[in-house]
């Protein structure tokens, strides 16, 4: 299975090389990326995203495995992925949100968050925040995670979703308001 990498969909495509001449590389052309090289290049990023979302290494490893298993099971004939890093980052956020959503529905506590002594209140708030994010609608939760956990700007998120920055700003505002309400109800903020 191969993924296409690169930012610009209008990059030139290499022409066939005449027999007896060395192959030439067209600068900026998409390079094929195998599943193995995608894993090698991006597994640490996916793990970090998942760890920040879920709060523990065990769940981050589960998310990492889920992302690459889903990628491996994609139809070989399906369209190539233009930007593997962006695609995999969003897939990690999505898989992490699935886990958080499952926990919020089942009231399964997040575990394994090791914090230094004296920071137990912060750990509890983080756990409550993760559960509250799991209760948001999918699009709001993804945008919230991309903005406030991953640090992407509103214009970057707008480009990822193919919407305006106003839509992103409104979605984030509503998500923050809903999170504040849910966190208060869960007893995370007094």
Total number of distinct structural domains: 2
Average pLDDT over all residues: 74
Spatial order of strands in the largest sheet: 1-2
The residue ranges in which pLDDT falls below 50 over 5 or more consecutive positions are 4-17, 21-31, 108-121
End-to-end distance: 51 Å
Report the order of strands and helices. Answer: EEHHHHHHH
CATH architecture of the largest domain: Orthogonal Bundle
- Outline the biggest β-sheet: 2 strands, antiparallel
Q: What share of the residues lie within helices? A: 55-70%
Question: What is the radius of gyration?
Answer: 20 Å
What is the CATH T-level topology of the largest domain?
Answer: Rna Polymerase Sigma Factor, Chain: A
CATH C-level label of the largest domain: Mainly Alpha
What fraction of the residues are assigned to beta strands by DSSP?
under 5%
Helical run tally? 7
Instruction: Give the total of beta strands.
Output: 2
The shape is globular
Structural class determined from secondary elements: mainly alpha
Quick recap:
The protein has 190 residues and is mainly alpha-helical. It contains 7 helices and 2 strands.
Provide structural commentary.
With 190 residues, the protein is mostly helical. The chain has two domains: 1-112, Rna Polymerase Sigma Factor, Chain: A (Orthogonal Bundle); 115-190, Orthogonal Bundle (Arc Repressor Mutant, subunit A). Helices cover 62% and strands 3% of the residues. The protein is built from seven helices and two strands, in the order ββααααααα. Strands 1-2 form a two-stranded antiparallel sheet. The longest helix is centred in the middle third of the chain and has 23 residues, at 84-106. The radius of gyration is 20 Å and the shape is globular. It starts with a strand and ends in a 5-residue tail after the last helix. Residues 4-17, 21-31 and 108-121 have low confidence and may be disordered.
């Amino acid at each position: 299975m191969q993924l296409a990498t690169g930012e610009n969909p209008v990059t030139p495509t290499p022409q066939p090389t005449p027999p007896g001449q060395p192959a030439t590389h067209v600068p900026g052309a998409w390079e094929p990326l195998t599943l193995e090289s995608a894993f090698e290049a991006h597994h640490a990023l996916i793990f970090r995203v998942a760890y920040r979302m879920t709060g523990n290494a065990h769940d981050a490893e589960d998310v990492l495995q889920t992302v690459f298993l889903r990628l491996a099971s994609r139809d070989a004939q399906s369209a190539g992925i233009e930007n593997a890093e962006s695609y995999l980052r969003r897939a990690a956020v999505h898989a992490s949100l699935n886990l958080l959503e499952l926990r919020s529905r089942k009231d399964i506590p997040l575990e394994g968050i090791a914090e230094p002594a004296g920071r137990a209140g912060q750990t509890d708030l983080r756990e409550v925040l993760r559960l509250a994010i799991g209760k948001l609608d999918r699009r709001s939760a993804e945008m919230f995670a991309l903005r406030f956990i991953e640090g992407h700007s509103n214009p970057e998120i707008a480009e990822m979703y193919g919407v305006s920055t106003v839509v992103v700003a409104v979605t984030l505002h509503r998500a923050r308001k809903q999170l504040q309400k849910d966190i208060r109800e869960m007893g995370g903020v007094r």
